[in-house]
Design brief:
With 669 residues, the protein is α/β, with parallel strands linked by helices. Helix content is 30%, strand content 28%. Helix 9 runs parallel beside helix 10 and helix 10 runs parallel beside helix 11.
Length: 669
C-alpha cells in the first residue's frame, strides 16, 4: 500500500502542460520525432523499477514534446523488462517499470511503443530448444528461433497481446528479426522446400547448384513468419502500429509485401551521418512511412553501459540527412539497468527537438525530385549475399562519393527501377555484376532513347563491354596505381580492383592511369570513358570505388566523377558550388521545391573520434537552379529570410549564406 501511495504522489506532483491536452495522439505512421530507450534486460538485473524518477521523465517529455516514446520490453537475452505471466523475466521487480512509463506517457498524451527482440531470444530458446532453428548439420541454434517453430505462437504473439491488454501499448518495434536470419534446416522448412521443388535433398553449402533456391525459399518462409505475427496483432488490435527493424531496407531490398505500418532501422553508432544518408535513400521510395534511429552514443561496452555520448551537432547532422529525404527521426538512449529513465542531457535534446520541429513543415511528407539514381540490383545482392537477409551492399562508398561531390541522388531497387527509370537523367550502376536481364534490356533501351548510364566497377563494366565500345585487356585484378590528370586537379594513388581497357575511335576519355605520380608517365589506359549509344550516353569507371573511396579519400576522385557526370548531364536541375563539405537533396512539397544543404564536415571516418562539437564552415554557396518560369520567391528556411536571385535563360542564380548544419532553400513557383 505504501508503494502505491508513493507512486501516486510521484505521478501527481507535476502539472500536465497545456499541449498534452490539445496535442493529437498520432499514429506512428503519422509521427515525425521520437525517442527510443532500451537496455536488453538480463537475469542479473535486480530491483527493476526501484529508482524510477518520474520527475525526470516528466521534465524530459515536457521539454522535448516527442510524437512517441519507445521502451524496452524484451531484448536479445530474452528476459522481459516487465512482470510477464507469459514469458521469462528477472522476477526482481520493486515496481512495474512499464506501468510507470505508460502512466507518465499517458499523462502527457504521448504514445508508447515497445522494443521487442524477435527471432533472437537467448532465454526462450534455452528453455525451449525445440523452438530453435537448425543449421545444415541439424544442430539447434541456442539463440535464434525457427521460422515455423513454436516461438511466435507460444511466446512472441502472446507477450505482445499481454502488453496490449495490460498496458494498452500503441505499437511495437521488433528488433533482432530480419537481420538475424540464417538458413533454417528445421524439418518443417526442409520438407516444404523439397515438396515445392521436387528435389530429393536439401542443399547444405553454397557449392550446391540449388543453394540459391534454398536461400530464396528461406526468404519466402521468413516473410510468412513476419506476415503471421503482423496480421495476428492487427487482428487483435486494429490500430496497433508495428514494424520489423530493417525490414524492406538495404538489408532486405524487396518490395513491401507484408502489412507493416512503418519502416525503420537504427544506423551505426559511428559515422552516423553517412550511414543515415545511405539508409534513408534505401527506405524513401518503399511506399511506407519510415524513420531512422540515431544512436545517441557510441558504445564502448554496450551491456556495461560504458559509452561516449554524441554531441548535439552530430545528432543534428544525422537528423538533417533523414529529414531531407522525407523521413521521421528518432534518437536512442539506454535505460538504466532497473529499466528506469536515465538522466540524459535534456537541454541538448530540447534543442535537437526544436531543430527538427523547425524543419518539419518543409520535410515531413516531402518527395525527392528525380535527378540521379543508383541502382540497387536485387539480383546482384542475392548473388553476393552469403545469407538470407541482413547483409547490405558494397555500394555505400559510392553513395558517399556522389554526395561529397554535391550530387542529389536516390537509390532504386529493382521494383523502383522498373517503375521510375524514365524519370531520371542519369542512372548509376555501382559495382554490381549481376542483373535482372529484363531490367538490363530496359536500361539499354532507356539509354538508346536519350538516357544516360554510368557504370562503376571493374567487373560491373564488363557486362556492358559492347555498349561502352572499349577493348578489355586481360582480367581485372587488385593493384596499387596512380590515377587522375590535369582536368582532375592532380594525381592520386589508390589500391583497388582495376580493369585495363583500350577505348575505340570516338570514345571520350576522362583521366588516365599513371606509372608514377608524375604527369610525364601516363599509361595508355583510361580511368573512365564515355560513349554515345543511340540518343544517349553510356560511361564507365573501370575500377571499384566504393570501399576504396572510404579508405583513400582525395579530391581527385571527386573531380573525376564530377567531370564524367557533367559530360553526361551538362545541364543539371541544380548546381551547388563553394564547398566540398555539403550534401544536396532536392525535394518538393505543396508545389514548392526545397533545396536541402547539409554541412557534412566532421571526423566521421576517424574511429578514434567519438564526438566533436564544431563543424567547418561551408562558406557562402553559389547555386543555380533550372526552371521554366520565374519563381514567385526564394526563401531561406526555417528562418523565412528572402533570398535575392537573378533569372535568365530558364535558370535562377543566387547565393546562400554559410550553412551551419542544415539550411533549406524554398523555391515557390
Amino acid at each position: 500500500m505504501f508503494k502505491i501511495k508513493v507512486l501516486f504522489f510521484c505521478y501527481s506532483f507535476f502539472a500536465i502542460p497545456f499541449w498534452a491536452n490539445s496535442q493529437q495522439r498520432l499514429k506512428r505512421a503519422e509521427s515525425f520525432l521520437g525517442f527510443h530507450f532500451d537496455f536488453h534486460a538480463t537475469a542479473a538485473d535486480k530491483s527493476l523499477g526501484s529508482c524510477f524518477d518520474t520527475a525526470l521523465l516528466a521534465n524530459f517529455l515536457k521539454r522535448t514534446r516527442p510524437d512517441y516514446i519507445q521502451i524496452d520490453s524484451k531484448g536479445h537475452p530474452g528476459y522481459s523488462s516487465y512482470p510477464t505471466s507469459v514469458g521469462y523475466s528477472a522476477n526482481s521487480f520493486v515496481k512495474d517499470p512499464m506501468r510507470i512509463w505508460r502512466d507518465v506517457t499517458n499523462q502527457f498524451n504521448v504514445p508508447l511503443y515497445v522494443h521487442y527482440s524477435g527471432l533472437w531470444d537467448d532465454k526462450g530458446i534455452h528453455e525451449n530448444p525445440h523452438w530453435g532453428r537448425r543449421n545444415a548439420k541439424g544442430i539447434i541454434d541456442s539463440t535464434k528461433a525457427a521460422y515455423l517453430g513454436g516461438y511466435a505462437e507460444k511466446l512472441m504473439i502472446p507477450q505482445l497481446k499481454e502488453m496490449i491488454d495490460t498496458y494498452n501499448i500503441d505499437g511495437a518495434w521488433v528488433d533482432g528479426d530480419c537481420w538475424s536470419t540464417a538458413p533454417d534446416y528445421s524439418p518443417e522448412v526442409v520438407k516444404g522446400f523439397l515438396d515445392e521443388t521436387g528435389l530429393k535433398k536439401v542443399p547444405v553449402s553454397a557449392a550446391d547448384i540449388n543453394y540459391k533456391k534454398w536461400i530464396e525459399y528461406n526468404r519466402v518462409i521468413y516473410r510468412r513468419y513476419l506476415k503471421n505475427y503482423v496480421d495476428k496483432l492487427h487482428s487483435y488490435k486494429p490500430d496497433f502500429q508495428i514494424a520489423s527493424n530493417w525490414a524492406y531496407s538495404s538489408m532486405m531490398p524487396e518490395k513491401v509485401d507484408v502489412n507493416v505500418d512503418f519502416l525503420s532501422g537504427d544506423v551505426s553508432g559511428q559515422n552516423g551521418l553517412y550511414s543515415a544518408a545511405f539508409q534513408a535513400r534505401c527506405l524513401a521510395l518503399q511506399g511506407k512511412p519510415w524513420d531512422l534511429m540515431a544512436w545517441g552514443f557510441v558504445p564502448i561496452d554496450f551491456m556495461g553501459g560504458i559509452q561516449s555520448p554524441k554531441s548535439l551537432v552530430q545528432l543534428k547532422q544525422e537528423a538533417a540527412e533523414v529529414m531531407a529525404m522525407g523521413g521521421g527521426f528518432q534518437v536512442y538512449f539506454q535505460q538504466n539497468r532497473d529499466a528506469s529513465f536515465r538522466m540524459i542531457d535534456t537541454d541538448a535534446m530540447e534543442k535537437l527537438a526544436e531543430f527538427c520541429r523547425e524543419r518539419q513543415p518543409f520535410c515531413q511528407g516531402s518527395e525527392v525530385i528525380p535527378q540521379i539514381a543508383m541502382w540497387y540490383s536485387v539480383e546482384g545482392w542475392k548473388t553476393e549475399n552469403p545469407g538470407v537477409y541482413g547483409w547490405t551492399s558494397h555500394m555505400e562508398g559510392i553513395s558517399n562519393l556522389l554526395l561529397d561531390t554535391q550530387f542529389p541522388i536516390e537509390i532504386l531497387m529493382d521494383h523502383h527501377l522498373a517503375e521510375r527509370m524514365d524519370q531520371y537523367p542519369l542512372i548509376i550502376i555501382p559495382e554490381w555484376n549481376h542483373f535482372n536481364l529484363e531490367l538490363k534490356r530496359q536500361l539499354l533501351a532507356y539509354v538508346a532513347a536519350g538516357g544516360n548510364v554510368l557504370i562503376i566497377g571493374s567487373k560491373a563494366s564488363k557486362a556492358f563491354e559492347e555498349q561502352l565500345n572499349v577493348s578489355f585487356i586481360g582480367k581485372d585484378s587488385t593493384l596499387q596505381f596512380n590515377m587522375g590528370g590535369k582536368t582532375a586537379g592532380g594525381i592520386a594513388g589508390i589500391k583497388t580492383n582495376w580493369q585495363k581497357v583500350l577505348p575505340q575511335k570516338g570514345v571520350q576519355v576522362e583521366g588516365m592511369v599513371y606509372t608514377q605520380c608524375d604527369y610525364r608517365y601516363p599509361t595508355e589506359y583510361p580511368v573512365a570513358t564515355i560513349n554515345n549509344y543511340g540518343k544517349g550516353k553510356i560511361a564507365a569507371f573501370f575500377m571499384d570505388m566504393s570501399v576504396a573511396y572510404n579508405q583513400y579519400r582525395n579530391p581527385v576522385f571527386n573531380n573525376l566523377i564530377r567531370n564524367v557526370i557533367s559530360a553526361l548531364i551538362p545541364d543539371p536541375q541544380v548546381k551547388v558550388t563553394g564547398s566540398d563539405n555539403v550534401h544536396v537533396v532536392l525535394g518538393k512539397k505543396n508545389r514548392r521545391a526545397y533545396l536541402h544543404l547539409i554541412n557534412s564536415s566532421g571526423d566521421h571516418f576517424n574511429k578514434n573520434v567519438m564526438a566533436y562539437n564544431e563543424l567547418l564552415s561551408t562558406g557562402s554557396l553559389k547555386i543555380t537552379y533550372k526552371t521554366t518560369t520565374k519563381p514567385l520567391s526564394v526563401k531561406l528556411q526555417p528562418t523565412g529570410e528572402q533570398i535575392n536571385f537573378t533569372y535568365a535563360g530558364n535558370r535562377i542564380e543566387f547565393v546562400v549564406p554559410p550553412v551551419s548544419v542544415h539550411s533549406i532553400v524554398e523555391i515557390a513557383l
